[in-house]
Amino acid sequence: MKHRTHIILQGVVQGVGYRPFIHRLATQFEVTGWVMNTTQGLVIEAEATPDILNQFIHQVTTTHPPLAQVEQIIQTEIPIVNDQTFIVHPSEKATERAVHIPADIAVCDECLSEMLNPTDRRYRYPFINCVNCGARFTIIRDIPYDRKQTTMQKFKLCPECDTEFHNLSHRRYHTQPNCCSVCGPHLELLDINGKKVRSQDPIADTIARLAHGEIMAIKGIGGFHLVCDAGNNQAVLKLRERKHREAKPFAIMSNDIAAIRAYCEISAAEEELLISPQRPIVLLRKKGPSTGIAESVAPNLNNLGVMLPYAPLHHLLFQNAPYLALVMTSGNLSDEPIVMDNAVALETFRGMVDSYLMHNRDIYNRCDDSIAMVVDNEPIILRRARGYTPLPIKLPNPVPDILGCGSELKNTFCLTKNQFAFISQHIGDLKTAEAYTFYQETITRFEKLFRIKPEIIAFDLHPNYLSTQYAVDRISNAKKPIQGIQVQHHHAHIASCMAENKVNEKVIGIAMDGTGYGTDGNIWGCEFLVADQASFDRAGHLAYTPLPGGDIAAVETWRMAISYLYSIYQAEMTKLPLPLLKEVDEEKLNLIFRIIQKKINAPLCSSAGRLFDAVSALLGICLESNYEAQAAIELEMIADASVTGHYGFDISEVEGKQVIDCKQTIVDIIGDLRKKIDKSIISGKFHNTIVAFSIEMSKKIREQTGLNSIALSGGSFQNRLILSRLNKGLKQAGFKVYTHHIIPPNDACISFGQVMVAENQIRNSNIEYRNKKIMKQ
Ligand code: ZN
Ligand code: ZN
Ligand code: FE
What we know:
Elements: E1 3-12, H1 18-29, E2 32-38, E3 41-48, H2 50-62, E4 69-78, E5 86-88, H3 109-115, H4 159-166, E6 187-190, H5 202-211, E7 216-219, E8 224-229, H6 233-243, E9 251-253, H7 257-261, H8 268-275, E10 281-285, E11 303-307, H9 312-317, E12 326-330, H10 342-348, E13 355-359, E14 371-375, E15 378-383, E16 393-399, E17 402-404, E18 414-423, H11 433-449, E19 456-460, H12 466-477, E20 483-487, H13 489-500, E21 507-517, E22 523-531, E23 536-542, E24 545-546, H14 558-569, H15 579-583, H16 586-598, E25 604-607, H17 608-618, H18 630-638, E26 650-654, E27 657-661, H19 663-674, H20 679-705, E28 709-713, H21 720-732, E29 736-738, H22 750-776
Parallel strand pairs: 2-5, 7-13, 9-11, 10-14, 17-19, 19-20, 21-28, 22-25, 23-27, 28-29
Antiparallel strand pairs: 1-3, 1-4, 2-3, 6-13, 7-8, 8-12, 9-12, 10-11, 14-15, 16-18, 17-18, 21-22, 22-23, 24-25, 26-27
Helix pairs in contact: 1-2, 13-22, 14-16, 14-17, 17-18, 19-20, 20-21
The protein binds zinc ion (ZN) (2 copies) and fe (iii) ion.
C-alpha cells in the first residue's frame, strides 16, 4: 500500500539547485510525484510505500543544497494519485513570495578546479559559476530569480551553456547566471586615461602591472576595489596619498591560508571564517614588523584585515603572481559608497589609479566586503554585507511590515515581513549626498524585492540625522497613514543584542559607544540600562563632561583630554608637566576654557568613546583621529594585556541614577605618567578600569533590581580587551552575558534594534488594548 505526502519548504529555496536536488533524491529512492517552485516556497508531492517514503522525507528534511537555507517545513499526508514517474514542474509565476534571495557566494571547489584545468572549456574564465556558487544578490533586479531579472539578461546562452542549463542531471541545471567565454561577460584592461589596452591576456598583464607597483581599479562582485601590491610600501603610500587616506587600515587579500600564515597568526576559528563561503575580511594578529607586508597597510595597528579570494577573477590574479598579498580596499571617495559602474569608476578614479581592469557584467546592488573577527573563539561580524546580505534574521513572532531607519554612522536599515527581518548591506556614513542617495535608493529596492510596504517606521531621537529626516518626510508624505516610533540609540543597541540572542526577559543593558542622542538632549555613550525590548530605564551612566566644540571633538581628540583636565584642575591644569600641553598652543587652550566656562557649543556627554579619546590624547598616542575611533583603537593596540590592576573611580547616586566619576582615573594616569610608567601598562590599567567600573555598576543594579542577565552592545565592544575581559568578569560575578555575533555590535545594529523596539511596543499596546476591551465586556 502506497502513501503520499505534500511538503512545503520555505526560506532560501530558489535559484540554489533545489529542484534537481529533490529529483536526484526521488530517483535514488524510487519515489514518484513532482516538485515545483510556487509562491509559497518549494512544493514536493511524493508517493511510495511508507518505509521508503519515510526515508525520503528524512533525507528531504535533513539535507539540502549548499546555498539553500530552509526556514520552515510544512508536511501533510494526502490521498494517493498513483503517479508513475517523478516530474520537475516549471516555476509558478510569483506575486507574493515566501522565498528569499540568496547572497553572493565564493566560487566553489568544483568550479575552481574546472577553471584551473587547461582542458576544460572554461579554463581561466573569470565568470565561471554554478548552481552552488557565484554572484546572486548583487546582480538581481527583481524576483522571481530568473536570468531575465538579473544583469546577465544581456548575455544570450550559447548552445553548450544552454544544454547545461536544461539538463536536469548537470550541476549547472537552472544556474541563472550560467555562461562561458563564448557567451558570457569579458574582461577589459584600460590605461590611465581610460583607453582600452589591447591585450592577449588581461589577467597576466594585470599581474605584471601590479608587480611593477601600479595602483589599479579592479571590478569585483559588489563594486570596485583599489588594488596594489601589499608588500610594496611605496605603492601603498602612493595609494594613501592619492586617496587622501592617511592612516585608516587597508584590507588585503592572499591566495591561500599558507600565504596568510607568513604574516599573520590564524586560529582554528579564524581559519573557519576565512574559508567560509561568505569570505569576509577577518581581523588577524600581525606576526611581526618584517613579514613581507608594508607597514603602511595598517599603520600603528597590530592586526590586519585579511581575506581569501572569492571571485574567480581573484584566484586568477594570484596564479604565478610574484606578490604575497594585494591591498584590496573599497573603491570609493572617503565616506561615499563603493563605486559599481564602469563609467562612474573612470570619472571617480581619474588621477587615483594607473589602470583599470573592468568587465561588462553590471552590478545592480552594490555590496561592500564583510568584516569579522574572533574573540575568545567566537566569531563576531563587524560589517555585514557581501555573503550575508540579504539573508534574513528569523524572528520569534510574525510581525507587521516595519522599517527601521538606522543611525547616522555605519548605517544599515532594516525591513520586516512576516517572521523575518531583512537588514540591508552596509550603507555607510550618511554624511555625503551620494551616501544618502544610496540609502534612499536601497530602501526602495528592498521594499520592491521583498514586497514590503511599511506600516510603521522606527527611527532615532536625533533631530538632525538624515535617517530621521528621511523618516519624518516619509511619514508626512504617506498616502496611507504610517505610524512613527522614535527609539533612543542605546535602547536600540540593547534591543538588538537581546533580539539576536532571543532574550525576552528584562536585562541590564550595557551600551558603550561614541555618541547617541539621549532622552535629556545630552550626548550619551556609556549607559547602564534596565531594559526589555519595548522600554528602558536609565539606571546609570558615566558622569557628564563638556564636549568642547561638539562633533569636532571626536576628531580633535585632545579637546576631550583638556575637558577632563579642566574638570579636575580648572585653569591650574596648564601647570601640569604634560607632553600634551606642549602640543596644544595657548590660544587654542584658552579657547577651550572659554567654550567650557560659557557653555557655548559644549554639549554634555557621557560617552565611553570620548573617554578613550581623552586618555589616548593624554598619553600622546593620538591627538587627532584620522578615521573613526582611531584614538581608541591605537590605545587598545599598545595595551599590555598582562597588566592586572586598575585605576580609581567613584560611583555615587545622583537623582536616582548611579553615576561613574572617572576624575580619579585621570589623576592616577597623570601620576603614572610622571613616574615614567610605560604607556602600554597605563593603557592596560585604563582598559581594566572600564571593565572594573562596569562590573561594579552591574552588581549595584543587580542588588536594586534582582536582574542577573546582561546584554552588551555598542561600538566600544569592537575592542577585544574590553569585550573579552568584561564578558569574563561578569560571568565570574555570576551574570548571564549576551553579546553580538551575527549582527555587528556597532551602529550597524541600530536599525534592527529600532524595528524590535517598535514591534514590541505595538504588540504590548495591542495586548493592553485587547485587555481593556475584555475588561469592559
Ligand atoms: Zn560553482
Ligand atoms: Zn556559453
Ligand atoms: Fe552606537
